[in-house]
C-alpha cells in the first residue's frame, strides 16, 4: 500500500475550506439515487406508507429523504428500525434494506411497526463516498447539534419513537477502499498521520459496549453464516482494532462515537459490516447477508421481548 501523502492538504495540518472545496471538486456522480432508490420506493408505495422526512439542499442538486413505514401501524406494537446508506458508498446496506422491505416486511405485519430508511446519505450514494458534500462523516455525527444534515434529519424522524424502538439494525460495509481512500482522507482532513490497518475478510457485527446483548449478536452471526463467511480475527485477536468478543462480534461505544446505531434506546442494536471486496462474496450475497441479519435480529427480538 502506498505511503505517499494524501493529495489534498499538507501533512500535519487540518483542512480548511479551501481543501474541502478541492476535495468536493473531485467527487463525481457515478450512479443515480433516483433510478436506484427512489424508483424502488415508488414501487413499494402501494404496500407501505412513504414518509418524506427531509430534503438535502446540495446545490445544484436537492435530495428528498424517505422512509418506508408499516401501513398497519399500531401504537401498541414495538418498533423495528432498519437504516441503510448512512455511508453512501456501502451499497449492500441500501439495496439490502430495500430487498428486506420488498421480500420480507409483510411477514412482520401485526408484530412490528417497521420503519425502514434505506438511504440516509443520497449525495454520497451517488458519488460512492463515505462523507457528505461538506466532507463530514454522517456516522460520527449522530449527536446534538449534528454537523451533518443527513444525521440531523434522521434523528428528527426517530426522536418521537426512540423509547419505543425494540430493535435497530444499521446496515454497513467494510471495503478495501476504507484503507485505500477513506481512512487516508480522514487522516489528511484532520491533520493526523495515517496508520494502516487490516481489512477483515468477511461479515461481522458491532454491538454496543454499554448494551452488548451478546446472545442477540451471535444469533445474527449464525443466520448470516448460512449466506456468507464470517470475518476471522487478526493476529492480535481483533477486527478493525477492536477485540473480538465472540466469532464475528466486536463492540463500540455507540452514543459516545455519534454512531447511527446509538440514536434510540432499543434493547437490541447491531451494526452489520459486509465485506463486498472478498473473492468469496458476490453482490447478491452481500445484499442477502444484510437481509439475513435484519430478519434474524427481528426474529430474535420477537422471541425475547
Provide key terms for this protein.
globular; 8 helices; alpha/beta; two-stranded antiparallel sheet; single chain; 305 residues; eight-stranded mixed beta sheet; Aminopeptidase
Can you walk me through this structure?
Helix content is 32%, strand content 20%. The protein has 305 residues and is an alpha/beta fold. The protein has a single domain (17-303), classed as Aminopeptidase. The strands form two sheets. The chain has an eight-stranded mixed β-sheet, with helices on both faces. Helix 3 links the parallel strand 3 and strand 4. The longest helix has 21 residues, at 283-303.
Domains (count): 1
Report the radius of gyration as a whole number of Å: 19 Å
Shape: globular
Q: Determine the N-to-C terminus distance.
A: 47 Å
Q: What are the segments in which pLDDT stays under 50 over at least 5 consecutive residues?
A: none
CATH architecture level-2 label: 3-Layer(aba) Sandwich
Report the count of strand segments.
10
In which order are the strands of the major sheet placed? 1-2-4-3-5-10-6-9
CATH topology: Aminopeptidase
Q: Which structural class fits the helix and strand makeup?
A: alpha/beta
How would you name the CATH homologous superfamily? Zn peptidases
On the 0-100 scale, what is the average pLDDT? 97
CATH class: Alpha Beta
- Relative helix content: 25-40%
Share of residues in strands: 15-25%
Number of helices: 8
Largest sheet: 8 strands, mixed
Query: What is the N-to-C order of secondary-structure elements (H for helix, E for strand)?
Result: HHEEEHEHHEHEHEEEEH
Amino acid at each position: 500500500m502506498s505511503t505517499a501523502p494524501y493529495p489534498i492538504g499538507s501533512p500535519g495540518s487540518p483542512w480548511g475550506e479551501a481543501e474541502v472545496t478541492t476535495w468536493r471538486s473531485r467527487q463525481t456522480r457515478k450512479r443515480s439515487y433516483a433510478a436506484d432508490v427512489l424508483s424502488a420506493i415508488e414501487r413499494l408505495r402501494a404496500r407501505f406508507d412513504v414518509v418524506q422526512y427531509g430534503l438535502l439542499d446540495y446545490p445544484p442538486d436537492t435530495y428528498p429523504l424517505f422512509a418506508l413505514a408499516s401501513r398497519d401501524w399500531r401504537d401498541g406494537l414495538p418498533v423495528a428500525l432498519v437504516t441503510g446508506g448512512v455511508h453512501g458508498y456501502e451499497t449492500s446496506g441500501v439495496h439490502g434494506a430495500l430487498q428486506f422491505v420488498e421480500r420480507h416486511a409483510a411477514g412482520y405485519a401485526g408484530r412490528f411497526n417497521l420503519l425502514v430508511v434505506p438511504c440516509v446519505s443520497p449525495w454520497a450514494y451517488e458519488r460512492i463516498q463515505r462523507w457528505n458534500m461538506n466532507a463530514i462523516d454522517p456516522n460520527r455525527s449522530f449527536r446534538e447539534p449534528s454537523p451533518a444534515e443527513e444525521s440531523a434529519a434522521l434523528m428528527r424522524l426517530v426522536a418521537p419513537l426512540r423509547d419505543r424502538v425494540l430493535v435497530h439494525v444499521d446496515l454497513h460495509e467494510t471495503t478495501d477502499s476504507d484503507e485505500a481512500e477513506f481512512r487516508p482522507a480522514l487522516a489528511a482532513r484532520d491533520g493526523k498521520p495515517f496508520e494502516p490497518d487490516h481489512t477483515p475478510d468477511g461479515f461481522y457485527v458491532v454491538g454496543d459496549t454499554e448494551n452488548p446483548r451478546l446472545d442477540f449478536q451471535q444469533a445474527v452471526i449464525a443466520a448470516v453464516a448460512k449466506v456468507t463467511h464470517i470475518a476471522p480475527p487478526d493476529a492480535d485477536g481483533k477486527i478493525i482494532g477492536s477485540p473480538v468478543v465472540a466469532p464475528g462480534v466486536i463492540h463500540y461505544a455507540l452514543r459516545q462515537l455519534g454512531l447511527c446505531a446509538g440514536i434510540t434506546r432499543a434493547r437490541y442494536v447491531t451494526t452489520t459490516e459486509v465485506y463486498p471486496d472478498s473473492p468469496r462474496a458476490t453482490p447478491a450475497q452481500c445484499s442477502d447477508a444484510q437481509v439475513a441479519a435484519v430478519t434474524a435480529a427481528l426474529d430474535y427480538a420477537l422471541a425475547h421481548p
